[in-house]
Amino acid sequence: MADASPIGIFIAGVLTLGIFSFLYKDNPVYKVCEAIFIGVSAAYWAVEYFYSALYKKFWLGVIPPEGSGADPDMWLWGGAILGVLMLCRMIPKINWLSRWPLAFIVGATAGLYMMTFFVSNAMNQIASTMQPLIQDTFLATLGSFTVAIGTVTGLIYFFFSKEHKGIFGGAAKVGIWFLMVTFGASFGYTVMSRMSLLIGRLDFLFSSWATNFGQMF
Amino acid sequence: MKREIPLIITSIAGIVFAVSYFIPHYPFGKAENIFGDWISIVSAFAIWLGMLNLGEVSLRKIIRKTEGWQLGVIVLVSMLVMLIIGFSSVFNAISSGTSHMAPGTGLKWMYDYTFSPLSATMFSMLAFFVASASYRAFRARSLEATLLLVTAFFVMVGRVPLLDPIVNALGITDFPFFSAVADWIMTYPNSAGQRAIMIGIALGITSSSLRIILGIERSHVGGDA
Amino acid sequence: MGNTLAIIGMALLGLSLIYVLYRTIIGNPVSRRVVFVYVAFAAGLPLFMDLLPPVHVTPDVQALVDALEELPPNSKILAAFDYDPPSAPELQPMAEAFFKMAFKNDLDVIVMGLWPQGPQQADQAIAAALLDPDVQAMNPQYGIDYVNLGFQSGNEFVIQRMGSGFKAMFSRDQRQTPYDSIPVLQNIVNFSNIDFVMNFSAGKPGTVEWVQFAVDRFGATLGAGNTAVQAPQIYPYLRANQMVGLLGGMSGAAEFEKALGMPGAGSTMLLSQISTHAIVILFIIIGNTAYFRTRKRKNG
Prior knowledge:
By secondary structure, chain A is mostly helical. In chain A, 76% of the residues lie in helices and 0% in strands. Chain B has helices at residues 4-22, 28-64, 69-96, 106-124, 126-137, 143-158, 164-169, 177-187, 189-213.
């Protein structure tokens, strides 16, 4: 960082070590760092949402700056009213009013998801599975068969309206195998991901923080 | 009234978004845009509700002197410090026409030196627990568990150059065998399994959404499903 | 010197695992803290080495690189930054390499974020890319060659709303400049004016939502860099041609850097990644060796 602050880097390192102290055992230093994390992140999110949604979206929408040529968008007041109703959650006597914005969010999400999930995650996936099984190379052909069999048997496993017996049960069993391979792949990738995060922190401690520490003391 | 109005709101919002998928023109397109803007604004209030609730819980803890109330003080103080610094950066940015996160602002400093290291370290600790769980609990007890384990092995050795350089150096193969195996696993069996899960979830979401829009599913308004 | 010491350390670490194997076999497994120490050394020691492991570029990464390299100068790329600092070790190297490539190829980049932290991470990546001499030679200018629109709340609703107009969600950029006054945004109304969407994602909202809305609804062309934990879920979209390419985790970052010929943090930290994978695999093997021996003893 070109504009790095030595005190800032020092504090960042101390906080990092404070969180890592949990690895030995739960201790007051970790708890303090955790409490700071909770407070700082809650406020950070609140500030960012205030700036982006309440100022840039709402305020500049209903009161456009002079010379911008934009007309005030009075419809935005609807969102603000729903938002204020959401805050009623904190007042016991009228907390039932917070169900209105909640109902709006649930309804809007349901309406938005209904078709997008059906098209992107169901129809397009089914279409992609229904490809010619015989491909140019042996591995690609094997892959096409694998995808077709794996998808169909996996879906059979998730079909609980019919008892998993006989041919249906056998297919469900094959489905479980495919799901296990999927979970194994996910596990491998999860290990990769988690280790990356640790490497990132250690890299910070050994490079930025250690160098800064040496310069400070 | 306490249940009927929310149900009507749910249905109207749902119908607008569902219909505008097919008819993105007036009046549905317009209504969809208005509702989309509202979601942005309402979600900001939802975040604020969460933060205020955290403040209230911490304050109650301090007043009642319940166990660990001192941590409540730290939560409140760090929250207030971040809010003060954050808002001063935001209002400075608004008045001077710059970025609220420009280098040199208080919010940027807090982001770089408190929020970033704390959040990054908190999640990085999972690396230790994943390794510990692998050692203590990851056993090939059944065919299914063995499949999971073998796949994880090939993915872990194939996605990084772990065994390929050794195999190539020994002259066993001259192409990245383990990388190719990991790639094949990810492209075919993994895609098949993920796709089965994905299609199942998609059909579930589609039917649940329909139930919500039609008012059959009412748990979100406090009623029976 | 650093290399030698680190290699000796790694060798000692490997040899000491024999003791862990012995302890586990006799039914006295080492405590979790010992495992933690191994993980810390496995991740930390390679950071003192300056070796670059050989990287094989996988087809999914190459496909993304090809798609990006084929874009003519002044093409408009919408870069969506949907991640936070915890995921930076995986995604930041991708982002830095992406900006270097974009600036060198004279592509116009429009940055935005569905996560509040995303635009901040983008600023850091841009700052790092601007240090590259080749990028400096191109002299990319804010507002003319790239812009940061900042964060907007609303998750996938933001993408859906951007379908009718970007300006509706981002009336001003991060620096408070009105949308219409930003040269790089001239003639950009919605996704139909965007040549490529590049998404860096660590969860929801992220690549799944960009596929569902930007690609399937508004016809955008999408490439993505994902955290490794999310990447397996994205493969079905890749197979269904809903995306042109995918970078998965730190190894994806290293492959991306290699394919672009710009080694960076992804490549240098890959050695630690390899070492930690090795330690986890060895621990799994040790645990299972002890398990099978115990089972054999019980059955026998």
